[in-house]
Amino acid sequence: MVFVYNKYMRFDIVSIIPEAFGDYFNQSILKxxxxxxxxxxxxxxxxxxxxxxxxxxxxxxxxxxxGMVLKVDxxxxxxxxxxxxxxxxxxxxxxxxxxxxxxxxxxxxxAKYDQLILICGRYEGVDERVxxxxxxxxxxVGDFVLSGGEVPAMLVVDAVARFIPGVLGKQESLETIKGSxxxxxxxxxxxxxxxxxxxxxxxxxxxxxxxxxxxxxH
Length: 218
Hints:
With 218 residues, the protein is α/β, with parallel strands linked by helices.
């Protein structure tokens, strides 16, 4: 069963290094989805919401300790600016190693919203007031540490967008419909390490019942 929800969705990403996203959102499925106005992706730089001449978004932690902490005020202002982009159902997410582990179940749940505001941390962390009073929830993409939340943001946008009607086109992906299983294409035989590596015969049989059974087993 394919889960689909909204007809249009906004992704507003709060990041101090918007250039980190490069061309990822301007390629393939996500680009077509934006062109068809199925999704909208905007980047909000907290530096644009600072008031000092140096556009400082970080400061040393109270109580001492290594590194710098992302300040609450520019993040708050960036989130508030993003919220003004829609009057519909919104969800604010902070990427954190202590957050809930992101999976397909969470992606489906998040796809029910009209807007996701994704806060990308940097440095030694984000002022705790962001987690407690600005974000609706914290999400982790795995048991490892990254330099910031930009990669998790791209991952979440990609995974959630697939549940928006029309993003994948009329033919939904095989993995979305039935889950992941081995796939093959031409040529039928290919030599790897001096051995012939062949496509399983059942996939060449034309017997869709047997093919489905084979896929269910794998």
